[in-house]
Amino acid sequence: MTSAGLNVTSVVLAGFLQLSDHRFFFFFVCLVAFVFVLFSDSLVVYLVVSRRSLHRPMYVFVAAVLLNSLTASVTVYPKLLSDLSGGGAVQISHNACVCQAFVVYSLGGSSFMLLAAMAFDRYVSICCPLRYAALVSPSAVAALLLLCWLLPACLVGGAALLASRLPLCHSRLSRLYCDIYSFVRLSCGGGAALLSEVYGLVCSTVTVFLPATFVLFSYGRILTICLHRSRSFSNKALRTCLPHLLVFLNYSLSTSSELLQRRLLTASDADASLLTSVLMIVVPTVLNPVVYGLKVKEIFIQAKKLMRCQTRS
């Protein structure tokens, strides 16, 4: 129990207490999801790295998206499984909560920026094919990848630093992991908390809303081009864009439900908060390798070849 004006040094993740009756079920679901993500993401990344036919920008971006998802899974799932195997609510220190929030938010922002880079690759390939080699060169791809990982890390790092300096007057979060917005809501309020919220909104705009807008613009232009080209060209172009659109919708729906729940629902809506925190962890990480493994023809073919070789040996 805490009261206003008391500086809290730890946070209680009360979502685990709400799962007390279904703890082992969620442990099993998360364990299966984690093992699947480890195997499938690693497989696709290995194929892109080891197969010369996949050494093209589109597949490099696919590998980057899945590597980003794999990194997030490795940093989130093990602690989640450890906490689910215990009993009652989970207590986490002030600094550990901020660090966890930094990892979740920075990698989440990187996901949207990588999808925007992928949309840029598809846009140039379909709408400006003669300039593709110049605009999407290996050096340009490397620069885009660095930007996609470093910019969210720097912006979210600033938000985490601001949040870490806030005195907390409350300690209870109805979630399974920490996020910066919920952490700021535990603070005692005042100008510093308002500054953190405004800065967080700027971070969300730069790392989520602007990349999402660019993705929608790019695929809108691609669709317009396809409507004026031959059926065979349109079918091929749309087939290469479909997996990226599915992954984009996957991230967008999960993130939108998270943002809407946090902004519109009250603190008493604990079940909704818990549900969205579970969906944010499981859904994107599991669906991404399924989409790329099954919908990207070249990756699917290389995966089948690898499996056949392993079976024969």
Automatic annotation (TrEMBL):
Subcellular location: Cell membrane
Mode of membrane association: Multi-pass membrane protein
Domain of life, per lineage: Eukaryota
GO molecular function: G protein-coupled receptor activity; odorant binding; olfactory receptor activity
Predominant localisation class: membrane
InterPro entries assigned to the protein according to its UniProt record, in alphabetical order: GPCR1_Superfamily_Member (IPR052921), GPCR_Rhodpsn (IPR000276), GPCR_Rhodpsn_7TM (IPR017452), Olfact_rcpt (IPR000725)
Protein keywords: Cell membrane, Disulfide bond, G-protein coupled receptor, Glycoprotein, Membrane, Olfaction, Receptor, Sensory transduction, Transducer, Transmembrane, Transmembrane helix
GO cellular component: plasma membrane
PROSITE patterns to which the protein is assigned, alphabetical: G_PROTEIN_RECEP_F1_1 (PS00237), G_PROTEIN_RECEP_F1_2 (PS50262)
Pfam families listed in its UniProt record: 7tm_4 (PF13853)
TM region(s), chain numbering: 24-49, 58-77, 102-120, 132-163, 198-217, 237-254, 274-294
Gene3D superfamilies on file: Rhodopsin 7-helix transmembrane proteins
Residues of the G-protein coupled receptors family 1 profile domain: 40-292
Family label: Belongs to the G-protein coupled receptor 1 family.
Protein's name according to its UniProt entry: Olfactory receptor
Species of the source: Scomber scombrus (Atlantic mackerel)
Lineage per the UniProt record: Eukaryota, Metazoa, Chordata, Craniata, Vertebrata
